[in-house]
Specification:
The protein is α/β, with parallel strands linked by helices. The protein contains eleven helices and 14 strands. About 35% of the residues lie in helices and about 20% in strands. It has an eight-stranded parallel beta barrel, surrounded by nine helices. Strands 1-2 form a two-stranded antiparallel ribbon. The chain has a two-stranded antiparallel ribbon with strand order 8-9. Helix 8 links the parallel strand 12 and strand 13. The structure holds ligand PBG. Ligand PBG binds near residues 131, 210 and 228.
Length: about 325
């Protein structure tokens, strides 16, 4: 501080100087959001030419495959690099043993093939987990009330194989079973799918923010036991995320993911700093619903809060974001 006048001392350093004008703010900007950072999750359902709204996810519909193909074309034209496909499996096909998960003609595989036929310049990501196919709503097979690990991993390997065979580019295990990345990598390689990438849901928490997603795939009503705490992580833990990511990388994951997003930015930052690998974050359904609900009530500006939340992921160190806002954000980024 220097005394510069009759009114006392003024700051020598004024961070506000750099913020005075738009050009100066641009000059000192540290992070950028690009359409290249976006992954767009899409829900598919049976039927033709139908869109079914999801009450808890305003603005997101379940799409029949023909419409999902059109949306994939839209994703390409917007420059979105990857879409993620999730099936809303009809209830009558959901079973305790989840046979539909390994049916090469299931909804997801049909959708992957239909999109691949168009030869678009986009990647397709598919979740590997049993919850869209299980009558009990769990991500794995249940024995005596417990989600059994190793039997589930065998199913996940078979699920990964049929998705790869359909043309899926990125396999994304979201189940949180132990050892599944190693097993899936070996299974893929054994069947000549060495080129198929793996994005591991590595630090996936037992979060209450997944509610609207479970509505979308119809797995919420039947979740036996009510939660997934015996396999998804405790929201109280950080070191455990490092351990999980370390394991998934050592088992062959090409990319890792943190989920949920906004309440877990500290995890994104720590993983990025620890491992320096491609790190993604899922802005999950509940986060999307929160912003939509507040905006719907006129309490928040949707576009501004959406873009700010996406920028926050970049600032935390994420390379990309799975977000239901992807097409809207891409449109805004295009407009500049
Ligand atoms: C399936 C899966 C879930 C989500 C993505 N994959 C739900 C869950 O684990 O219960 C949630 C995504 C979202 O909430 O947007 N294992």
């Amino acid at each position: 501080m220097t005394a510069i006048g009759p009114f006392g001392e003024y700051p020598q350093t004024r961070p506000r100087r750099n913020r005075q004008t738009d050009w100066s703010r641009r000059l000192v900007r540290e992070n950028y959001l690009s359409v290249d950072n976006l992954i767009w999750p899409i829900f598919v359902q049976p039927g033709k030419a139908t869109r079914t709204p999801i009450a808890s996810l305003p603005g997101v519909d379940r799409l029949s495959i023909d419409i999902a193909v059109e949306e994939a074309q839209r994703a390409e034209s917007l420059g979105i690099p990857v879409i993620a496909l999730f099936p809303a499996t009809p209830t009558e096909l959901k079973t305790p043993q989840c046979e539909e998960a390994i049916n090469p003609d299931n909804l997801v595989c049909q959708a992957v093939r239909a999109i691949k036929e168009k030869g678009l310049d986009i990647g397709i990501l598919c979740d590997v987990a049993l919850d869209p196919y299980s009558s009990h709503g769990h991500d794995g097979l249940v024995k005596d009330g417990y989600v059994v690990n190793d039997e589930t991993v065998e199913m996940l390997c078979r699920q990964a194989i049929i998705q790869a065979a359909a043309g899926c580019d990125i396999i994304a295990p979201s189940d949180m079973m132990d050892g599944r990345i190693d097993a899936i990598r070996k299974a893929l390689d054994h069947d000549q799918y060495q080129h198929v990438q793996i994005m591991a849901y590595a630090a996936k928490y037992a979060s209450a923010f997944y509610g609207p997603f479970r509505d979308a795939v119809g797995s919420s009503g039947n979740l036996a036991g009510g939660d997934k705490k015996t396999y998804q992580m405790d929201p109280a833990n950080t070191d455990e995320a490092i351990r999980e990511v370390g394991l998934d990388l050592s088992e062959g994951a090409d990319m890792v993911m943190v989920k949920p997003g906004m309440p877990y930015l500290d995890i994104v930052r720590r993983i990025k700093e620890t491992f320096a690998v491609p790190t993604y974050v899922y802005q999950v359904s509940g986060e999307y619903a929160m912003l939509q609900a507040a905006a719907g009530n006129g309490w928040l500006d949707l576009e501004k809060t959406m873009m700010e939340s996406l920028m926050a992921f970049k600032r935390a160190g994420a390379n990309g974001i799975l977000t239901y806002f992807a097409p809207q954000a891409a449109e805004l980024l295009r407009k500049g």
